[in-house]
Write a structure and sequence with these properties.
With 364 residues, the chain is of the alpha/beta class. The protein has helices at 51-57, 106-109, 159-178, 196-205, 221-227, 238-243, 262-266, 290-294, 307-320, 334-342, 357-363; strands at residues 14-18, 26-30, 39-48, 74-81, 92-95, 98-100, 120-121, 125-126, 134-135, 142-146, 151-152, 186-190, 210-215, 231-234, 248-253, 269-277, 298-301, 326-330, 349-353. Strands 3, 4, 5, 10, 11, 18 and 19 form a seven-stranded mixed beta sheet that branches. It has a six-stranded parallel beta sheet with strand order 14-13-12-15-16-17. A two-stranded antiparallel sheet has the order 1-2. Residues 21-352 form the Enoyl reductase (ER) domain.
């Protein structure tokens, strides 16, 4: 098919850290596709590490047939652009999970580019606009994407802090907006990690009546309060679960154990409430139908967000001082950084910095 034809700019070479299905990344170079009139080239200064990156590089979501550069919490400076985006050269921007979309379909026109049938994810995907070319992510020195998907970083936000907002931030912000979180609503967050710690901050900033942190241990109880939680539920404590039963209008599920008791978790949702699945399991879920029928509980999914939602999220974060808690590590030590994340040690997001980071931070 013409949409999937090889398309390389032999005059340009980008270098990153690639996986072929194991957690160990190796330095690897590729030729990007030629810069089109709607494209921008970004010199990467920062890239966060997300659970989706880990699932991909370990083969948890399927084997990788060829080297793959992951990374979809990208921040950097536009250093080259096609004709339509020349005025943005020099701008500090962030790129999330999308590199392109058609712009013309029903979903795109509704602001849901993430649902476009011709969307291109930022890595492990192909461009579908007829020009060909494969996508590669942000564990690299540079990346080329459609300019519409490069979002300006607010001036009062550090570039390192901005990076996790491009995935963890939009992933937790969008469903709260879509399901009308705010005054009068009780919101629960399952999993206090890279996504969950931002979910708590969003819900608190939206002035929800209750913001409930739900975790399988007490180790993050005090940190959850600092993030803005008004209550804490230990999902392994029967008394906590009983006291919180059927009390939350919206629950964001940002992580879960392989042996998660889904019926017990659904019992936390209020009548007519929603459980929103944000974490992608590697195996099918086993859930009884009782809560769906007898209490009209809904279980829905949410996939990142479109262009406008991403811009709104960055503006909201800038205005309400929502920031990820981060640890920075050099991208040259990406294998140590990935290992750190796989061990579940960060509080709460690792952001890798390239050689361009100091220059970018100084000039921002």
């Amino acid at each position: 098919m013409s949409d999937f034809k090889p398309c390389e700019d032999q005059s340009a070479t980008f270098t990153g850290w690639a996986s072929t299905g194991t957690p160990h990344l190796k330095k690897w170079s590729y030729h990007p596709r030629p810069l089109g009139p709607k494209d921008v080239e970004i010199e990467i200064s920062h890239c966060g590490i997300c659970g989706s990156d880990i699932h991909t590089i370990t083969g948890g979501w399927g084997a990788l047939p060829e080297p793959e550069i992951v990374g979809h919490e990208i921040v950097g400076k536009i250093v080259a652009a096609g004709a339509e985006f020349q005025n943005r050269i020099g701008e500090h921007v962030g790129v999330g999970g999308l590199a392109d979309a058609c712009g013309d379909c029903k979903d795109c026109k509704a602001g849901n580019e993430q649902l476009c049938s011709k969307k291109s994810f930022i890595f492990n995907d192909k461009f579908k606009d007829g020009r060909g070319g494969k996508t590669y992510g942000g564990f690299a020195d540079r990346v080329r994407v459609r300019g519409d998907f490069a979002h300006k970083i607010p001036e009062n936000m550090s570039l390192a802090e901005a990076a996790p907002l491009l995935c963890a931030g939009i992933t937790t912000f969008a469903p709260l907006i879509q399901h009308q979180a705010g005054p009068g609503k009780s919101v629960g967050i399952i999993g206090i990690g890279g996504l969950g710690h931002l979910g708590i901050q969003w819900a608190a900033a939206m002035k929800c009546d209750e913001v409930v942190a739900i975790s399988s241990s007490n180790s993050k109880r005090e940190e959850s309060k600092k993030l803005g939680a008004t209550k804490f539920v230990n999902s392994k404590n029967p008394e906590d679960m009983k006291a919180a039963a059927q009390s939350m209008d919206i629950i964001l599920c940002t992580s879960f154990a392989k042996d998660a008791d889904w019926d017990a978790l659904l019992n936390l949702v209020a009548n007519n409430g929603k459980m929103v699945i944000l974490a992608m399991p590697e195996a099918p879920l086993s859930i009884g139908a009782g809560a769906f029928i007898h209490r009209q509980v809904s279980m829905v999914g949410s996939l990142i967000g479109g262009k406008k939602m991403s811009r709104d999220m960055l503006d909201f974060a800038a205005k309400h001082n929502v920031r990820p808690w981060i640890e920075t590590m050099p991208m040259s030590d990406c294998n140590a950084a990935v290992k750190h994340v796989m061990e579940g040690r960060p509080r709460y997001r690792v952001v890798m910095e390239t050689g361009a980071a100091v220059r970018a931070q100084t000039s921002n």
